[in-house]
Amino acid sequence: MAVDPDHVLRSAAALLTRKSTATMDEVAKAAGISRATLHRHFAGRDALVRALESLGIEECQAALDAARLDEGTASEAVRRLVGAVEPVAGLLAFLYTENQLFEGEGQNAGWARIDDRISALFRRGQLDGEFRIDLTPAWLTEALYGLMASGAWLVHSGKGAPKDFQHMIVELLLGGAVRREES
Length: 183
Known about the structure:
Blueprint lengths: L4 H14 L5 H8 L3 H7 L3 H22 L7 H12 L3 H8 L12 H19 L9 H21 L7 H11 L8
Helix pairs in contact: 1-2, 1-4, 1-6, 2-3, 4-5, 4-7, 5-7, 5-9, 6-8, 7-8, 8-9
């Protein structure tokens, strides 16, 4: 029986999103294959995580494209971006915590391209007078990643409703937590 590597990766992503400490045995079981078969495709956890990284970058770049970041206001583009990332937010949350992906010279250039695109969106919003200028685009980009990761974990834990994912993230990022007086 031929093993579909995409199925294995997506099964691993679904499991590791819920249980980041899952063993290779658990990953194999989730994919419906033996541990030996899993190891024929991925020599170990590091190889699996690197393959998941490639999938995450691919999915994130597709979400950036789908969000049409150059259209409309920067705030509208942020809303579209969060909505487009939502289906893969769990995978991105898992990858966000995998420190080995972001250390040393072996860092995948795909992350830098993603950072650059999102930072450019925040910079555009600042230049257009939409976003605060006292927070750097890099800071806003990292804040967005953190909120999306936290939102994914909240939804996966059952503490948050999936329908609130986009609204809660965008409102907190763009509006902050300070209660405003209604006029």
